[in-house]
Amino acid sequence: MVHLATIPNDVDVDKSVVKGLEQVKLDNPFHDEFTTSIYGSKFASEDLPRHEMPDTEMPKDIAYRMIKDDLSLDGNPMLNLASFVTTYMEDEVEKLMAESLSKNFIDYEEYPQSADIQNRCVSMIGRLFNAPTHDDSHESVGTSCVGSSEAIMLGTLAMKKKWQNKRKAEGKPFDKPNLIMNSAVQACRYFDVEERYVYCTQDRYVLDPEEAVKLIDENTIGICAILGTTYTGEYEDVQTLNNILTEKKLDTPIHVDAASGGFVAPFVNPDLVWDFRLPNVVSINVSGHKYGLVYPGVGWVVWRSPEFLPKELVFNINYLGADQASFTLNFSKGASQVIGQYYQMIRLGKRGYRAIMTNLTRTADYLAAALTHLGFIIMSEGGGKGLPLVAFRLDPKNKQLYDEFAIAHQLRERGWVVPAYTMAPHTENLKLMRVVVREDFSRARCDQLICDIALALKTLNGMDEKRLAEHTEHAKQHATNSGKAVHNHPRYKNERHSLQGKTGKTHAVC
Question: Residue 195 forms beta bridges with which residues?
């Protein structure tokens, strides 16, 4: 997912950082084009180009150092406990991926082995999700994507098109499709599909199967169930949802958004039935760059059979000399991430993934126990019943003068990014924090986080109400990075069609 960027006008471009600074002359008549020192060059005394491409070249070592210095102001990815995205891969796979950066994955004729590696990944993932492979009547299909967001969009498009085809064949209107989902979801309106939300309650943060089924009508294209919500990491009850549909003789398809849980549940909780073992599950998406253990840029989607991927969505094209079938929202893309996924699956195998996911689950349980001892209420599931994360909040019985946001600001001072946010619509009065336990979050690092949380509580408990208010306001204005860059064009503010536009609340960081 990317943001819209505003192209500044000429007045904004010419503004100085501090008023009056533009009058200060920094030209050095003694600078020439050659120097053996990066910081002795003229480029070190100039601002990096921001709006206009420069007229002349810059030496490669200087360009590298200037950009590297600029990026040093970013946070440390390993301390970013808000994100599910992979931050560690072995040197060998990094080398493989770097060697494939120049490969255009879509060029199957030129890079047939890269294309075949995708096929191997799809087969492995499909079998991991128990795709029907017992006879020739079932030929499950799948593809790689740039992430699980594209993957779920492809799944939604397929459900919409199949529903439209059925309505057309019956001579019925097909212009008002709807999709049923939990309000604690990351959703979009790109495909003219109405979102029907099953809202969370004060004691339930996942989809209620009974309530979901009640929302079904003739225009419902499907139900989306989440295997690991971004708020609390809980698995939604896909099996009960499937059983209710079967009992009521409803043929409504289920798409499982296994973006986070697809590479966790099969190894930590293999007896949990959520995948193609259930007849109403027609498609599943999963992120390769979350618990698939690959750097950002890869996702996967698998369909039970071609019946659920209408032929008219698939483009058969001749590109660069090869006939190929394609279903994608993108076209040209690098092969590196797909190759990285293949490396991880054959390098680790099922036993390796199981060992990593089990360790993460143990670390999450250890952290949850420590936070309970510090007085927090744990909102996530432990023991492998959900994702390896810990969602927690302050106990209102303790009547602290500060909230979860104040704790998050304190942890920022130590370099940690531990998000604080309000729950999904209709439960937004609940505030919580969340720590995502990733592969490189070791027990030692977990202990350091626990110590820093305890220190944050001690610091905040030592402040009176006035000092807390001043501290909170200062943190909002100066202690976060969100104000350093503008990601929203003024034309697109205050919209009223998205979940956030309607309710003022959207999904957690993912």
Answer: 179
Residue 225's DSSP bridge partners are 256
- H-helix or E-strand spanning residue 322: strand 322-326
Which of 353, 338, 347 shows the shortest CA–CA distance to 298? Answer: 338
Helix (H) or strand (E) holding 354: helix 336-373
- The number of angstroms, rounded, from the C-alpha of 280 to the middle of its chain's C-alpha atoms is 26
pLDDT per residue of the chain (510 residues) written in tens, 0 to 9: 455 666 777 777 667 767 766 666 666 655 555 566 899 898 998 889 999 999 999 999 999 999 999 999 998 999 999 999 999 999 999 999 999 999 888 777 788 898 899 999 999 999 999 999 886 666 899 999 999 999 999 999 999 999 999 999 999 999 999 999 998 765 555 678 999 999 988 889 999 999 999 999 999 999 999 999 999 999 999 999 999 999 999 999 999 999 999 999 999 999 999 999 999 999 999 999 999 999 999 999 999 999 999 998 887 766 555 566 677 777 778 899 999 999 999 999 999 999 999 999 999 999 999 999 999 999 999 999 999 999 999 999 998 989 999 999 999 999 999 999 998 878 778 999 999 999 999 999 999 999 999 999 999 999 887 888 887 777 767 655 544 555 566 665 666 555 555 555 555 555
Distance CA 240, CA 213 (A): 11
Name residues whose C-beta falls within 8 Å of residue 64's C-beta, 6 or more positions apart in sequence. none
The neighbour count for residue 110, using CB atoms within 10 Å, is: 13
Rounded CA separation 394/407 (Å): 10
Backbone phi and psi for residue 122, each to the nearest 5 degrees, phi listed first: -60, -45
- Give the 3-state secondary structure of 219-242: CEEEEEEEECCCCCCEECCHHHHH
211's tokens: 């309530």
- pTM listed for this prediction: 0.88
Q: Are 441 and 84 in contact (CB under 8 A)?
A: no
